[in-house]
């Protein structure tokens, strides 16, 4: 990494930065990888994924918490990435559909290493779960409890609850799974006694409580995180046979300049303060935290043109490849794959190649001069990029590479 550039770019780190003026990730030149792929390309740094996982395990252990980690597969289901996590042997996987369950099994995860957290669960979904008796199931409705009980009497389950409080990146309401507005997720406290009764009547043993309240929260949101755990305590108090508590995912990473990394020590201290004396195993389901900052999306510029006073930079991919800017209004850090040789910057809007008005990957951002044929890298694309992609306008083709 250029020592001179280390003082200029807040996003640089080991295995991601400019070397000899060219952006590299995991020792590979981003533009060379994109050129050889001949298409939009996601590049994932395996070492960064491992580091993120180890960091999370270390802080939970330091807090004295008995714990298990289940990677939230919906964040990124690239088979080589899943295989890499399985071979590390340091986490399980959380799935939310039968196909995700079967994909996890195909790369080697045992049934007992898989948790299933679904919603609007169909009879076909339950039939798959019936064939996998070792999978941990979290039921989020009385209906799913009744119907699972008919198929699998005697099974141990967890209940997904709704603490009626949510949080997310910069308190983005689009990212909250619970809050003032009723959501489809989980069992509310007013239904909880009925859910426990339903489980007993269905010959199901409730041994876990699960709640997931948001996505992307950072240190400023930790006071609210503490309140959410307090709200969850009343559910725990009503379940004498609990063995574990699953706190879901939602741990965030810095997405824009000015964001600071989540204070994991403060985060784990809140968990320990609330549940450290409960003898419950603490489970978490990080997705973004493990893979988001390990990935970049590289696109090629094909159009640079001013329209109505806005300089548009058109690229060969759109919101169908990375939907978060359009869907959740989350920022994407954009940078040229060639290190700029001047401090000149101009405000531009990055436009994708999808024939929809919302297909803008970044608006009114500062970039150095960009030319047609250049390559741009979009940071923090390792989570909820390729996994949420579509073939809209038949422009869904891309490639993915796991870089060791």
What structural keywords apply?
404 residues, Lyase, Ornithine Decarboxylase, Chain A, domain 1, TIM Barrel, eight-stranded parallel β-barrel, 27% helix, 25% strand, disordered N terminus
- Using the 3D structure, state the CATH architecture of the largest domain: Alpha-Beta Barrel
Number of separate structural domains: 2
Give the CATH superfamily of the largest domain. Answer: Alanine racemase
Shape: elongated
Query: Helical percent range?
Result: 25-40%
Radius of gyration: 22 Å
- In angstroms, what separates the terminal alpha carbons? 18 Å
Word description of this protein:
The chain is of the alpha/beta class and 404 residues long. The protein has 2 domains: 152 residues, Beta Barrel (Lyase, Ornithine Decarboxylase, Chain A, domain 1), CATH 2.40.37.10; 245 residues, Alanine racemase (TIM Barrel). The protein has 11 helices and 21 strands. Strands 4, 15, 16, 17, 18, 19, 20 and 21 form an 8-stranded mixed sheet that branches. Helix 6 packs parallel to helix 7 and helix 8 packs parallel to helix 9. The longest helix has 17 residues. It is elongated. The two termini are 18 Å apart. The N terminus is likely disordered.
């Amino acid at each position: 990494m250029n020592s001179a550039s280390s003082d200029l770019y807040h996003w640089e780190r080991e295995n991601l930065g400019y070397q000899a003026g060219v952006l590299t990730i995991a020792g590979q030149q981003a533009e060379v990888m994109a050129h050889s792929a001949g298409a939009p390309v996601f590049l994932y740094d395996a070492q960064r994924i491992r580091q993120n996982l180890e960091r999370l395990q270390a802080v939970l252990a330091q807090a004295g918490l008995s714990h298990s980690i289940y990677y939230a597969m919906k964040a990124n289901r690239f088979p080589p990435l899943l295989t890499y996590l399985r071979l590390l042997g340091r986490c399980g996987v959380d799935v939310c559909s039968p196909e995700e369950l079967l994909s996890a099994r195909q790369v080697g995860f045992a049934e007992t290493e898989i948790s299933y957290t679904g919603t609007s669960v169909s009879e076909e979904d339950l039939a798959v779960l019936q064939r996998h008796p070792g999978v941990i199931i979290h039921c989020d409705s009385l209906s799913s409890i009744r119907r699972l009980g008919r198929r699998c009497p005697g099974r141990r389950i967890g209940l997904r609850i709704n603490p009626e409080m949510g949080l997310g990146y910069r308190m983005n309401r689009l990212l909250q799974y619970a809050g003032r507005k009723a959501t489809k997720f989980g069992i509310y406290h007013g239904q909880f006694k009925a859910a426990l009764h339903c489980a007993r009547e269905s010959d199901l043993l409730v041994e876990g409580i699960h709640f997931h309240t948001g996505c992307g929260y950072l240190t400023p949101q930790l006071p609210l995180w503490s309140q959410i755990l307090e709200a969850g305590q009343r559910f725990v108090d009503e379940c004498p046979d609990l063995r574990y508590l699953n706190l879901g995912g939602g741990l965030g990473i810095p997405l824009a300049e000015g964001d600071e990394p989540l204070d994991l020590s403060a985060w784990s201290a809140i968990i320990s303060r609330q549940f450290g004396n409960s003898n419950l195993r603490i489970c978490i389901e990080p997705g973004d935290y493990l893979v988001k900052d390990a990935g970049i999306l590289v696109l090629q510029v094909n159009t640079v043109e001013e329209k109505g006073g806005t300089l548009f930079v058109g690229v060969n991919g759109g919101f169908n490849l990375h939907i978060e800017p359009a869907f959740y209004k989350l920022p994407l850090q954009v940078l040229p794959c060639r290190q700029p040789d001047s401090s000149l910057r101009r405000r531009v809007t990055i436009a994708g190649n999808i024939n929809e008005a919302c297909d803008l990957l970044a608006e009114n951002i500062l970039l150095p001069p960009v030319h047609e044929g250049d390559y741009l890298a979009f940071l923090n694309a390792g989570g909820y990029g390729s996994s949420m992609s579509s073939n809209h306008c038949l422009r869904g083709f891309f490639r993915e590479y796991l870089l060791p």
